[in-house]
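Reviewer comment 2.1 asked that we show a complete input and output for one of the modelled complexes. We chose the iron/sulfur cluster case, as it is the one discussed in the main text.
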Amino acid sequence: MEILVEKSALPYSLTQEIIKKYPYSIISSYEDFKWEFKSYPELVSLGKKRLFIMNYKGKFFRKCPGTKNYFCCGYKIFHFAEGCPLDCTYCILQCYFNRPGIKLWGNLLEDGLRELEEVLKKHKEEKKVLRIGTGEFADSMALEPICKVSEKLINFWQEKDPLAVLELKTKVALPEEYYAKFKPDPRIIFAWSINTKKIVKEEEKKSATLKERLKSAKLAIKYGFTVAFHFDPIIFYEEAEKEYPEILEEILNNIPLDRIAWISLGTLRYPKELKEIAESRFSDTKIYAYEFIEGLDGKKRYFIDLRIKLYNSLAKIIKSVENQVAFYFCMEGERAWEEVLGKKIKASEDVAAILDEVAIRLCG
Ligand code: SF4
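Response of the prediction step:
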């Protein structure tokens, strides 16, 4: 990984920690960085191998952007980076970048943790539980060998004792030594995006196999953490309605149910510009070849009947554990909630209430 450090990010401790271990170059600023003359898809690929360490001036603590007209779960984000070295064919981050590279905030330990501490303190005083994660604009763990941000956040959680759960969403597998260095803490949720073996192999380049992800989840539990799973994106193909339920069954048969915070479901959706970029980067991908409609949020998605059919392939298994594990949809409307999960959801707050109840339990 090529590391480029903004001059103004040099004094910060995370920057210093990284540049002590890795070779780097200094640049005057991210905005002034002159990049190679290549096509957009080539620049996206190039950007997977370059890390900018920057002096971030924006908000570290944010609301999940959600999407218009579908229910959102009220998740909050600790924004530590933008971009990802993994390479999923459906990744929407391929549509958004100004310079080819992953951005990491060098001032995170000084400015980011100060902002986070204030938010956590306020929530604790008001006795309001917070669900927060880092995996919205980046994979929570893919940069961990370089930056150790998740490790720092786990230690921060244990030191500050907030009324909050921290969800670390990833597609990489973590070794036993990673978990062994922390005290057990059910408020820390290691979460894996889950897909069928076919989709992992064909569409989630550079990420861990399904077997490795599940092994890693078991290790997280062994060391006293909570786990979560996100069936997202569920992708339609001929065997999908057979293979997604098999994976869900495998999880439920191998992971103690009381250690699963939640399981989310969401079918493939994407901004329309993504198709052309992804197809020129991944000539073998077939996921965009199906019929899509423009959803109420302007994103492409499967027609509601197909979405419900895919979700319904999981409904019987979900029903058998519905009192033990919280299932929810990411960005769906009333019909999916009612027809698949049998729940009358009228607003995003109803979804948030289901997950807050779990978070309160995990906070003890
Ligand atoms: S792991 Fe997530 S952030 Fe990384 S490439 Fe895949 S979809 Fe994008």
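The domain at 55-362 is CATH 3.80.30.30 (pyruvate-formate lyase- activating enzyme). We note this here for comparison with the apo prediction described in Section 3.2.
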